[in-house]
Specification:
Layout (H helix, E strand, L loop, with lengths): L4 E12 L2 H7 L1 H21 L3 E6 L2 E6 L2 H20 L9 E13 L2 E3 L1 H9 L8 E4 H7 L7 E7 L8 E6 L15 E4 L3 E2 L7 H16 L5 E2 L2 H5 L8 H8 L3 E10 L2 E10 L5 E10 L3 H15 L6 H6 L8 H14 L4 H17 L4 H16 L5 H18 L4 H13 L4 H14 L4 H13 L3 H14 L4 H13 L3 H14 L6 H11 L3 H15 L2 H15 L2 H11 L10 H10 L3 H13 L21 H9 L4
Helix pairs in contact: 1-2, 2-3, 3-20, 6-9, 6-11, 11-12, 11-13, 12-13, 13-14, 13-15, 14-15, 15-16, 15-17, 16-17, 17-18, 17-19, 18-19, 19-20, 20-21, 21-22, 21-23, 22-23, 23-24, 23-25, 25-26
C-alpha cells in the first residue's frame, strides 16, 4: 500500500467470546479453536473481497470496499459458525462477536488507522455472542439491499469517540423470538389425537392432520409448517409456547377426532403460541362423507382469526383432489399413512391402498397423485428401476392433472418427471414454480426445485430454495440433508460438515446421511473418516453391494487402485440386484483414471435414466473431467449445457 492514503472503507472487527479465559485454562483447546476459526473465516473474507489487515490474538481486522459486502460477509460468518457450533461439543464451540462501521481510514504500510477502525472495534463488544452490530452509516447503506431486519440499540457513547453513535443489531434467523413476538401467520397443525374406539383408526387422525395442513397452506398470507416437522410432536408433552419456539410459529391448531361407523366427531382449537391463550374451539359432529366440509370450515375459522380473507378461489382450491366416496377417502388416508413411512415395503403398501382408492373413485385426483409420488420416490431413490418407475409416475401424474390441473402435488410430480426422466430441467423449473404458486407452503416443491437449480449450476438460488424448504419443514431429515449437500456442492465444506453434524444429532440412524458424509470426508482427504461413514451406512441400510461401491469410491480417491478394482469386480456384474447407480460406478472409474470406462457407465446411466447423472455438472469429484468433449456432449443431452 502507498503511504498515508485516505479512503472510504467498511471495517469489520471480530472477537472470539471467552477466548482469553479458555487460553488460561486449556491452552491446547484454545489453539485448536483459533485454528478452526481461521479455517472457517478466512475463505469467507476472500469470498466477499475482504482484505485481512491483521489479526490481534483471536480477533480479525478486515477491510471491505462496500458496506454491503461487509454485512453479507458478517452474516455468512455467523451462519457458518452457528451451523458448526450446533455439531460440536459445547467446549469446542466458537462464539464470535462482529462490529462493522463505514468511514475514512488511513493506510500506512500494511496497516490502517482512523476513526472507522476505532468505531468498529468499539461497536463489536456491543454485539451478543453469535451476533453482529453495525453503525447507522452501515445500516443506511444496506437496509434496502439486505433482507434482514436491523434493530436499533439507540445512541451509544463509545470510548475515545467524541460524539454518540447510533448502533443497530442485525437480526439473525435462529434467534429465539421473545415472548409476544412469534409470527401469528406462521401456523403449525399439531397431530390430531385419535379417540376412536378402534385403535386401528389412528391413520384417520394422521390423515386429517395432513389434509388440514394442505388446506391451510392454500390460504394467502400464511406459512404452514409441513407434516414431517409437526409429526415429531406426536404424543409429546410440550407447552404451546415451547412448540412455538421450536418451530418459530405464533399459531397452533390442535384437536382430536373420533370415528365410529359412518360418523365422525372432530374437535379443533386454535392457540396463540405467544400467550398460550385459546383463540377459539369448535366441535364438528358429521357424517363421514362431510369430512372435507369440516376441513374447509376449520380453515375458514383459522383465516378469520388471523384476519385473512378466504377468497372464492381459495375455497375452490380447498376441494382440490378430493372425493365424494368415504370408502375411497379412507383407503387414500391409509395409503398416505404408509407413504409417510418411506421404506420400500411401506411404499409398496401405499401403492396398494392408492390403487384401491382410485378403483373406488376413478375421478379421485389425489389418489392418482399419491400413486405418482410413490413411483417417483422408488425411481428417484433407487428403490426400483427408474426406467420402469418414472413412466408409471408420468402416467398417474397425467391422469391427476386431467382431473384437477390446480393440484400442486401433481404439478410437482410432473416437474420431477420432466427433470429426471425427460431430461428437461428448464421445463421442470417452470412447473415447480407453478406448484409453489399454487401452494407457497409446499416444502417438498421448494426442496425439489432446489435440486433442479443446483444441477443447472445455480447453486446460490438452490441454497435459497432449500433454506426455504427447511423454514417450512425444519425437522425434515431429508431437507436437512439436502441443505448439507447444497453447501457441499458450493464447496463450503466446513458449513456442510456442520449441517451434517446437526442432522446426525437429530437422527444418527438416518442412513442417507452417511454417503454424503463419506463424499465430504473424501474430498477433504479424510479417508479414514470417509470409510467409517460408509461402514456405518452399510450397517444401517443392509445394502452390501452399494456399500462396496461407496467403499471403492473412497479407495479410488485415496489412491488404493487395486482395492477399488477388486470391489468393482464384485459390484459391476450384480449392480442391478440393488438398483445401483451406473453413474456412481462411472465416477469410480474416473477416479481410477479409466476415463473411457467412466463414459461407458455414464452412457448406461443415461439410457437407464439414472437420476444421479444430473449431478455431473456440479460434482466436485469430477472437476478434471470437464475438459473432455464427451462431458459437454452429455450435458447437452441431459439439458444442462
Amino acid at each position: 500500500m502507498t503511504e498515508n492514503v485516505r479512503r472510504l472503507a467498511a471495517i469489520m472487527f471480530t472477537d472470539m467470546v471467552g477466548y482469553s479465559a479458555l487460553a488460561q485454562t486449556n491452552e491446547s483447546l484454545a489453539m485448536e479453536a483459533l485454528s478452526k476459526q481461521n479455517d472457517i473465516l478466512r475463505p469467507l473474507f476472500r469470498r466477499f473481497r475482504g482484505t485481512e489487515v491483521k489479526t490481534i490474538g483471536d480477533s480479525f481486522l478486515v477491510e471491505f470496499e462496500s458496506a454491503l459486502e461487509a454485512v453479507k460477509c458478517g452474516f455468512e460468518v455467523q451462519s457458518a459458525l452457528h451451523d458448526y457450533n450446533a455439531g460440536v461439543a459445547r467446549e469446542r464451540r466458537l462464539p464470535l462477536r462482529i462490529g462493522i462501521h463505514l468511514g475514512d481510514v488511513i493506510h500506512e504500510g500494511s496497516d490502517i488507522f482512523g476513526d472507522a477502525v476505532n468505531i468498529a472495534s468499539r461497536i463489536e463488544p456491543l454485539a451478543e455472542s453469535g451476533g453482529i452490530c453495525v453503525s447507522s452509516q452501515v445500516r443506511d447503506q444496506v437496509s434496502n439491499k439486505f433482507d434482514r431486519r436491523f434493530v436499533s440499540l439507540g445512541e451509544k457513547l463509545l470510548k475515545n469517540i467524541s460524539a454518540p453513535i447510533t448502533v443497530y443489531r442485525l437480526e439473525m434467523p435462529w434467534e429465539n423470538a421473545p415472548a409476544g413476538d412469534l409470527d401469528r401467520r406462521r401456523v403449525a397443525v399439531l397431530p390430531f389425537v385419535s379417540i376412536s374406539p378402534d385403535p386401528n383408526d389412528e391413520y384417520f387422525a394422521d390423515g386429517l392432520t395432513e389434509e388440514l395442513i394442505g388446506r391451510l397452506s392454500l390460504l394467502k398470507g400464511v406459512e404452514v409448517i409441513a407434516r414431517t416437522s409437526v409429526m415429531s410432536f406426536k404424543k409429546q408433552e410440550k407447552t404451546a409456547s415451547q412448540i412455538g419456539r421450536d418451530l418459530r410459529v405464533g399459531t397452533l391448531l390442535e384437536g382430536s377426532v373420533r370415528k365410529a361407523g359412518n360418523r365422525i366427531r372432530v374437535t379443533a382449537q386454535l392457540i396463540d403460541a405467544n400467550s398460550e391463550g385459546h383463540l377459539w374451539m369448535e366441535n364438528y359432529d358429521r357424517n363421514l362423507e362431510d369430512v372435507f366440509a369440516v376441513q374447509t370450515e376449520v380453515a375458514e375459522r383459522v383465516a378469520s382469526s388471523l384476519e385473512l380473507k378466504l377468497t372464492p378461489e381459495s375455497k375452490k382450491l380447498m376441494r382440490q383432489g378430493s372425493t365424494g366416496s368415504p370408502e375411497a377417502h379412507a383407503l387414500y388416508l391409509k395409503g398416505r399413512y404408509y407413504w409417510n413411512v418411506r421404506s420400500k415395503e411401506a411404499i409398496d403398501k401405499a401403492i396398494e391402498y392408492f390403487e384401491l382408492a382410485v378403483e373406488q373413485d376413478p375421478d379421485f385426483a389425489a389418489g392418482y397423485s399419491g400413486l405418482a409420488m410413490c413411483h417417483l420416490v422408488l425411481g428417484r431413490n433407487q428403490l426400483g428401476d427408474p426406467g420402469v418407475e418414472f413412466p408409471k409416475a408420468k402416467e398417474y401424474t397425467k391422469r391427476a392433472l386431467e382431473i384437477d390441473p390446480d393440484l400442486a402435488e401433481a404439478r410437482a410430480c410432473l416437474a420431477n418427471n420432466m427433470h429426471y426422466y425427460d431430461f428437461d430441467p428448464k421445463g421442470a423449473e417452470k412447473e415447480f414454480r407453478k406448484a409453489i404458486d399454487m401452494n407457497p407452503s409446499y416444502a417438498t416443491a421448494h426442496q425439489w426445485l432446489a435440486h433442479c437449480l443446483a444441477q443447472q449450476g445455480r447453486l446460490d438460488e438452490c441454497l435459497a430454495e432449500i433454506s426455504k424448504a427447511k423454514e417450512l419443514d425444519p425437522l425434515s431429515r431429508i431437507i436437512n440433508l439436502n441443505l448439507g449437500d447444497a453447501l457441499y456442492y458450493l464447496r463450503r465444506y466446513e458449513e456442510s460438515l456442520a449441517q451434517f453434524g446437526k442432522l446426525k444429532e437429530m437422527d444418527p440412524s438416518f442412513a442417507f446421511l452417511y454417503p454424503s458424509m463419506g463424499s465430504l470426508y473424501g474430498i477433504q482427504g479424510r479417508y479414514d473418516d470417509a470409510l467409517e461413514a460408509v461402514e456405518r451406512y452399510g450397517e444401517i441400510s443392509k445394502r452390501p453391494l452399494e456399500t462396496k461401491l461407496l467403499t471403492a469410491n473412497v479407495y479410488a480417491m485415496k489412491g488404493d487402485s487395486d482395492d477399488a478394482r477388486r470391489l468393482l469386480a464384485d459390484v459391476e456384474p450384480n449392480y442391478e440386484n440393488e438398483a445401483l447407480s451406473p453413474f456412481k460406478i462411472g465416477v469410480v472409474h474416473y477416479l481410477l483414471g479409466e476415463t473411457d470406462k467412466c463414459y461407458e457407465w455414464i452412457e448406461t446411466a443415461y439410457e437407464r435414466r439414472d437420476p444421479n447423472i444430473m449431478t455431473m455438472k456440479i460434482d466436485p469429484e469430477l472437476s478434471r473431467l470437464r475438459d473432455d468433449p464427451r462431458f459437454r456432449a452429455m450435458l447437452e443431452r441431459i439439458g444442462l449445457a
